[in-house]
Amino acid sequence: MPVVKLTLSEEYYQKLSEMAQAEKMSIQDLIRNKLFHENTIFTPEEAVRRAHDGRFSNGQEFSLPDVYGDDWNIERGPAGVFGKRFYNYINDNEVGIVFLNMGKYGRRAMYKLKEVHENE
User: Fold this and answer.
1) Rounded Cα gap, residues 112 and 83, in angstroms
2) What gap in Å lies between CA 39 and CA 75, rounded to an integer?
3) In whole angstroms, what separates CA 102 from the centre of its chain?
4) Which residues are within 8 A (CB) of 74 and not within 5 positions of it... i.e. 6 or more apart?
5) Is 110 helix (H, G, I), strand (E, B) or coil?
6) What's this model's pTM, rounded to 2 decimal places?
7) At what angle do helices 27-36 and 10-22 cross, to 10 degrees?
8) Which of 3, 46, 65, 96, CA to CA, is 20 to 30 A from 80?
9) Would you say residue 3 has pLDDT above 60?
10) Whole-number Å distance between alpha carbons of 66 and 51
11) How far, CA to CA in Å, does 97 sit from each of 29, 30, 37, 115?
12) What is the pLDDT of residue 77?
């Protein structure tokens, strides 16, 4: 996959960063969306929605590819970036998902739905 580099002044970088944050996207996804009108299903919010759609029970371990099933088609590098965004998102927001570990081979983050107790 080709890599395109772009040099920005601090002012333009800040503007681009604020635009991406307002859209709840990464800078990379914002640029793709604005230039190519390409929307992506690979957002932390969409992953949370899919994780809570009933396919996982409380305590069942899952990874992001499990959440997306047949829709998972991200290559390794961008998948890592998305995984980091998802990890940060679930840690910064109360979404009912907790990080467990980095899986059997230390390369794929594993999560589970937070168990809900009736008295909480």
Assistant:
1) 15
2) 17
3) 15
4) 42, 82
5) strand
6) 0.67
7) 80
8) 96
9) yes
10) 9
11) 23, 25, 31, 9
12) 79
